[in-house]
Fold this protein.
Amino acid sequence: MAHLVGVVVAAIPVAARGAVLGRVLPRRLRLLLILVVVAAYAVAFVPLYALTGEAALMVFCLVTAAAGGMLGVRGGLFVALVGLLLHALPFGVLQAVDPTLVQPASAGIYALAVIACAVGFGLMEDWRERVRQYISVGDAGGASLRAAMAQVPVFLFTLDRQGALTTSAGRGLGSLDRTTRAPVMRSLAERWPDRPEIEAYARRALAGETVNVTLEVGAVPFDATFAPLRNASGAVEGAVAIGLDATDQRQSRRENDEAGQRDALTGLPNRTGLMRRLDHAMPQAGRETALLVLDLDGFKHINESIGLTAGDELLRALGERVFAKLGVHDQLARLGGDEFAIISPDTDERAAAVLARTISEAVCAPFTVNARELFVTASIGVAMAPGHGTDAATLMRSAEVAMYAAKRRSIPWTLYAAAPADASAALLPLSAELRRAIEQEELALVFQPIVSAATGKLERFEALARWPKRDGEVPPSEFVPLAERLGLLTALTDWVITASIRQLRAWLIAGRDTSVTVNLSPRNLLEPDLPRRIAAALAAADVPAERFGIEVTETTIMADPERAARTIADLRSLGIAIAVDDFGTGYSSLAYLHRLPISIVKIDKSFVRDLAKDDNGRAIVRATVGLAHVLGFTVVAEGVEDQSTLAIVRELGCDEVQGFHIARPLQPADALRFLRG
């Protein structure tokens, strides 16, 4: 028995091989096989021992090792104990062949060797079985994931630090190279030699950058992300790329965009749709394009007299009638409210004039709405590209300026290039000077205080533009319309806004608590990017939006209520205060203004200056103030020019006052002194 342990150890590899072979059999068959072997071993032990001596004992160690390897710890122990009972105990066969073998020392060593083989190989088998289960689960999960990826329109691949592919999956790979069986450990340049941008994005990801791009693969777009893979310490050890077929999303966006470019009332393209079409229609190779903007005259009063529903029906009928007069390549759109536009490509000024007259005559013919005969007129502005604008936005501004000029002159239509007939000849030499004055910032600002009616405390300044010249100052009533005719109104407005904010910043830095408002013209409210430009100017100067405000007149709002409301809402959302200037001179009502996000109403000076001797005017102001307060508006009395008027507006409940009695418009230095009190 002395060499028993060494023999057992030497027999382990043989037992291990037997265990590996045994694992191919079902568990019950394995158990039956082992029991048969044990029984056969017990029966044959005596002659085997006679032939081999103690080597016969080693055979049982192999049997128990194989049992442990095939059946695990519990099965191996069972076989070992059964075998020991059959031949190793005093009443077993060992007693018959060699009584010394069942002595305590020898029998103990033998039993330990047998049990060690059973337990040792049993534990190994148990651990191997667990590992196989984990691997099986992992393989099943991986197979499921690969199967799912193969059905989904995505691609996914990973790279090691050197940029070699380590994994790739997804049906989307087929769009890239017509095969989803991508051998790993190849570089991207080898995998997709004709798509160098993929390697470039991956290199950026390996450098630690997350890149979101759209990959166009033939007709298939993929929204793709290339991102770094980091280890636990945060170091980049590879990259991953995943892309999703965006065909459906793009189609959905296209459908939504198309729906968003249609006017719900008439089915015509809306302003957004028109501007996109105008971008495509802008002239190329010397061809001209005409843009006509049409606005009904007095449509607000038509709506009030026939009702909104009938008014909508009139607009639909108008769209149909105008459309019937257009050429095959002309495009009609409804800009909003009662404003329409026509794009006429490959059209010169003469043909555009003929089209404008044709449309004007068509509009003037009677409409029948709800069994009522209606007569309407329209003002049409015509602008030509490239002469009046080389981009869609500029051309639209020019056409709208021409439309407002036609409306002011009460004529059916006018061309933007033609100056209004009543323009003063003295203004013509100023055109070049005004352009230069705006570009070189030769204009100036003055600031008129607005104060509390009760305490006289300064509330804010109204910024007013001035054009000083060596031969005398040009009044705003001359250079503002001139800027509009020359297409310089946007540049002039931007200068006023920027200069006002710059001065406001200087006062705030000096520790002076104040605010500034500026005036906007009707044309300014038609500019969809106005809120963005004001926001950019405030951000550049680091001035809070709450310190800045705008003033718009009733006429400005009522010229196009729908578009004005959108612009005012956008400005208010920035935190900018909105005031209605010259209230009482237009056609709006406080009830209508209450629907807009405005906070201040300024009563026009024509109602204020004669309050001391006009009882009717006093009653109007008192009623206006009362209703404005109910609606939550702050009321400012403009044109307060003497102490008696100031006392009256205080009595009538006005919150704030402005006028020569308080202060005339002040130069910046004088305004600072006013701030200091």
About this structure: Residues 425-676 form a domain with the TIM Barrel fold (CATH 3.20.20.450). Residues 178-185, 418-426 have pLDDT under 50 and may be disordered. Residues 72 and 127 are 9 Å apart (CA to CA). The radius of gyration is 46 Å.
